[in-house]
């Protein structure tokens, strides 16, 4: 009795995703053994044809119909034929690392400022369409492990991640400096964005975790400096607007008082009050505003309200790592003393 060829692959490591059977001269009547969590794909001329799941098969022209038609094997014959057999590992491959080799440029939607961010994390995959995966990814390689997947898809992950990060920050209104508090939400958002690209290759992404978002040190210092200047400008602007309003309202009250009879009206009509207001400028206007109980313009920040806004900005800078705890405490006391 002729010996029946036995075709089987026992993986030496679970890290192996795809392995090619060494021989290509397959004989009709050979026994094909496919272990659990494996699939065997017949390939001819670069085309992935017949597929076999876990089990033991005696190869006949009846159970390899697509290959039989391509090779022109006579139905029921026992002639050998040339074909490749690829074994595909169907288990989940988790703990694969990804990371940005270069910072990703994005616009912070809260501060409307361009920054460059770094990110890293882990992801996991499972091959769900063995024929598509073998035909598109493996090519002429005799085997493929997770390192080849990282090599093949690493750049695509980063490219799609760049788009996902930009969309996430804009759609959710989240600042880059708040991202590490929303990593779970960002991870879920990202996997939705990148999954369709991997599905085209027969790959299902079972998990995708963003573990850290950070800015390069030089970017962080640059942003800290600019944000500090912005806070100063906003404080000066608010103070000038409030001061100008009080001064103008003081002059309006003085003008009306000068038109009235009485001691105060007479003095003001004589130019004493008005002259003092003009000579003293904004300082006099401020004093007159207090004396005449002129209410600030609606919407104009009061000192306490302004202090609250400044303290909130200061806390955001601390949370983002732009200032130290010592700097935060010192600046906080200055703001409180100014109330």
Describe this entry's structure for a reader.
The chain is an alpha+beta fold and 339 residues long. It folds into three domains: 6-88, no CATH class; 93-215, Band 7 domain (Tetrahydropterin Synthase, Chain A), CATH 3.30.479; 219-337, no CATH class. 47% of the residues lie in helices and 24% in strands. It has helices spanning 65-71, 130-138, 146-172, 183-199, 217-258, 263-269, 272-291, 303-319, 325-337, and strands at residues 6-7, 16-20, 25-27, 31-34, 38-44, 47-52, 55-58, 80-82, 84-89, 93-99, 104-108, 113-127, 143-145, 203-214. It has a five-stranded antiparallel sheet, sandwiched between helices. A hairpin with a 4-residue loop joins strand 11 and strand 12 (113-127). Helix 3 (146-172) crosses helix 4 (183-199), helix 5 (217-258) packs across helix 6 and helix 5 packs across helix 7 (272-291). The radius of gyration is 37 Å and the shape is rod-shaped. The N and C termini lie far apart (102 Å). The relative contact order is 0.09.
Quick overview:
With 339 residues, the protein is of the alpha+beta class. The chain is 47% helix and 24% strand. A five-stranded antiparallel β-sheet has the order 6-5-9-2-13, sandwiched between helices. Strands 10, 11, 12 and 14 form a four-stranded antiparallel β-sheet that branches.
């Amino acid at each position: 009795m002729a010996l029946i060829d036995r075709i089987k692959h026992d993986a030496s490591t679970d890290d192996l995703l795809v392995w090619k059977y060494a021989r290509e001269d397959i004989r009709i009547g050979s026994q094909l053994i496919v272990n659990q969590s494996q699939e065997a794909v017949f390939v001819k001329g670069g085309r992935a044809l017949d597929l076999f799941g876990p089990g033991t098969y005696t190869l006949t022209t009846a159970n390899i119909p697509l290959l039989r038609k391509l090779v022109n094997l006579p139905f029921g014959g026992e002639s050998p034929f040339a074909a490749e057999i690829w074994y595909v590992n169907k288990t989940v491959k988790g703990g694969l690392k990804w990371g940005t080799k270069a910072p990703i440029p994005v616009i912070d939607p809260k501060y409307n400022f361009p920054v460059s961010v770094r990110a890293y994390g882990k992801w996991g995959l499972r091959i769900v369409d063995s024929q598509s995966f073998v035909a598109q990814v493996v090519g002429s390689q005799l085997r493929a492990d997770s390192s080849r997947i990282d090599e093949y898809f690493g750049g695509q992950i980063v490219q799609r991640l760049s788009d996902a990060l930009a969309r996430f920050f804009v759609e959710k209104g989240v600042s880059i400096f708040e991202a590490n508090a929303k990593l779970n939400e960002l991870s879920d958002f990202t996997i939705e964005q990148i999954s369709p690209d991997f599905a085209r290759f027969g790959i299902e992404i079972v998990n995708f975790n963003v573990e850290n978002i950070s800015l390069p040190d030089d970017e962080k210092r640059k942003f800290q400096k600019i944000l500090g200047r912005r806070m100063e400008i906003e404080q000066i602007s608010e103070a000038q607007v409030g001061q100008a309003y009080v001064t103008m309202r003081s002059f309006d009250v003085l003008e009306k008082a000068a038109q009235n009879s009485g001691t105060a009206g007479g003095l003001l009509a004589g130019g004493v009050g008005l002259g003092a207001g003009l000579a003293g400028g904004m300082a006099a206007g401020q004093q007159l505003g207090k004396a005449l109980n002129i209410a600030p313009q609606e919407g104009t920040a009061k000192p306490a309200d302004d202090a609250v806004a400044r303290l909130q900005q200061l806390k955001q800078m601390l949370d983002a790592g732009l200032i130290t705890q010592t700097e935060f405490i010192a600046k906080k006391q200055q703001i409180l003393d100014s109330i």
